[in-house]
Amino acid sequence: MTNPPLANSPLEDFVGRHEKLFVLTGAGCSTNSGIPDYRDSHGNWKRTQPVNFQAFMSEEHTRQRYWARSLIGWRRFGQARPNDAHHALARLEAGGRCEMLLTQNVDRLHQSAGHRQVIDLHGRLDLVRCMGCGAKTPRSEFQNRLGRANAEWLTLDAADAPDGDADLEHAEFSSFKVPPCEACGGILKPDVVFFGENVPREIVATAQDHLAQADAMLIVGSSLMVYSGFRFVQAAANRQIPIAAVNLGRTRADDLLTLKVEERCEAALAFLL
Fold first, then answer.
1. Main site of residence (predicted)?
2. Which domains does the chain possess?
3. Which residues lie across from 138 on neighbouring strands?
4. What kind and span of H or E run contains 117?
């Protein structure tokens, strides 16, 4: 006598009932790719908060500290590869059930997994932008410039921190050289939204337009503690569409959820593979 087939999980049922899912992803989606997250299961910071936009723009020391740590951190971050959670969501899109994927991550791993319709809410770390003339260059090219200007730093190593950062503790950053923009001499910044910086209005508007077309929302790996992502859950709740979340620990939207699954992202989404 054969065993009866296992019943579908509540998340599989949720996904199966909706044809136009608006998916919002966060750091928990990429932790299995070796990229650390910022918050613990209670939504609190695990480490010092990320660099602030105003400090980066106004303080040379802050820029030296940021780029020194990034020089070390990028070596592994730039080699990160998609995990099963990214591949599962790409399969969801390939099956025609994903209206749009909005990610708070800056690692481009959804695109690497083959996902086509992706909005990078907080930008992308693989580009560097001049804050003077707006020119953009690949981060890999700037990595080479940083290395040539700071050869002695290339012998250092440090533990990975979120978003291409590294925990360089007790280092003296005043000797670190940060190259300026080759075109205009301006300040170079990763093409991501720092804390204290606003998400461009056109990106928010485009995401809201796609949310308006969705029949449900799926949150994957985000505590939603940052308002830039939480606002879309509020908008979905105002539209009274169902909202499901996959996240280890509490989220800012727990009282708005139709379904919550406290599992690792790749495990919860395994049914899509």
1. cytoplasm
2. 10-272 (3.40.50.1220)
3. 127
4. none
Instruction: Look up residue 195 and give its amino acid.
Output: F
Give 251's contacts (C-beta < 8 A, 6+ positions apart).
43, 219, 222, 223, 224, 245, 257, 260
What DSSP element (H or E) covers 265?
A: helix 265-268
16 is annotated as contributing to ligand binding: no
- Is residue 226 annotated as involved in ligand binding? no
Active site residue 61: no
Catalytic option among 86, 110, 122, 210: 122
Confidence grade of residue 4 (pLDDT, cut at 50, 70, 90) = very low
Pairwise CA distance, residues 243 & 255, whole Å: 11
Q: What does each C-alpha distance from 43 to 31, 159, 234, 254 come to in angstroms?
A: 15, 22, 18, 12
The HSE-up count of residue 108 (CA atoms within 13 Å, CB side) is 13
- 259/242 Cα distance (integer angstroms): 8
CA pair distance 181, 172, nearest whole angstrom: 24
Q: Is 223 annotated as a binding residue?
A: yes
Question: Considering the chain, what percentage of its residues have pLDDT values greater than 90?
Answer: 82
The beta strand positions in 37-150, using DSSP E, are: 98-103, 118-120, 123-130, 136-138
CB 272 within 8 A of CB 88: yes
- Residue 181 annotated as binding? yes
Q: Do 56 and 129 form a contact (C-beta atoms < 8 A)? A: no
